[in-house]
Design brief:
The chain is mainly α. The chain has one domain. 77% of the residues lie in helices and 0% in strands. Helix 2 packs antiparallel against helix 4, helix 2 packs across helix 8 and helix 5 packs antiparallel against helix 6. It is globular and about 55 Å long. The N and C termini lie far apart (74 Å).
Length: 218
């Protein structure tokens, strides 16, 4: 019975904390809406474009080389991610801080998460290189062998989870409840992206793009 009450109380506290957090978020704020759109759009964009290139090689033909096409897409992804980070920062600054998070220990946890996230992102990039990081396999640019060293021996998707850790750290440093929600959105978008990358999805959309391309060429 005591355990049951304890679990009940803990569940009640969790619900209260969640309700309190949501009270500090303005869902109608334009900067919040822009940040959510940027978060969802980015992985959708690069997955659709990469699969379209894999099926048609239209980017490689346009740039005259799969390497140039991959670099172009990579730089576009970087710019989109910079804009996503900017839009999230703007949304965090526009909305209220939460006194529950506004503590020294939370601040330092945020710093630690950003250090960890940066380590995962940078080490992943160094291990894969530019084309390995930015979907080179869809352009026919394959690595000599599978990368199994750090950070891939820690997590299968270090670039994604390192980026998520950075955003979570930023939210904790800024004591930002909207930052927590946006970070959760980033994590969900990445989980969907991982499923996209590992399964045959969006085929109807890709077929549409392929057909449209062929019509334009004809």
């Amino acid at each position: 019975m005591c355990c049951g009450r304890s679990l009940e109380q803990r569940g009640g506290m969790d619900v209260m904390l969640m309700e309190e957090l949501l009270k500090h978020i303005n869902f109608h704020d334009s900067s919040f809406c822009v940040a959510v759109i940027a978060i969802i759009f980015n992985p959708f964009f690069w997955n659709v474009v990469a699969r379209w290139e894999y099926r048609t090689q239209q980017l490689s033909k346009l740039f005259g080389s799969p390497y140039l096409a991959c670099y172009a897409l990579g730089f576009m992804i970087i710019l989109l991610n910079v804009y996503r980070s900017h839009s999230m920062t703007v949304a965090m600054r526009a909305q209220a801080r939460w006194e529950v998070m506004d503590r020294t220990d939370v601040f330092y946890i945020g710093i630690a998460l950003m250090v960890l996230g940066t380590l995962l992102v940078v080490s992943s990039f160094l291990a894969l290189g530019f084309t390995g990081t930015f979907l080179g396999d869809y352009f026919g640019i394959l690595m000599d062998e599978k990368v199994t060293g750090f950070p891939f021996n820690v997590t299968e998707n270090p670039m994604y989870w390192g980026s998520t850790a950075n955003y979570l750290g930023l939210a904790l440093i800024g004591a930002s409840p909207v930052g927590l929600l946006l970070t959760a959105t980033v994590a969900m978008a990445y989980k969907v992206a991982i499923r996209f990358e590992g399964a045959q999805v969006c085929l109807s959309l890709l077929q549409f793009l392929t057909t449209l391309t062929c019509c334009c060429v004809i």
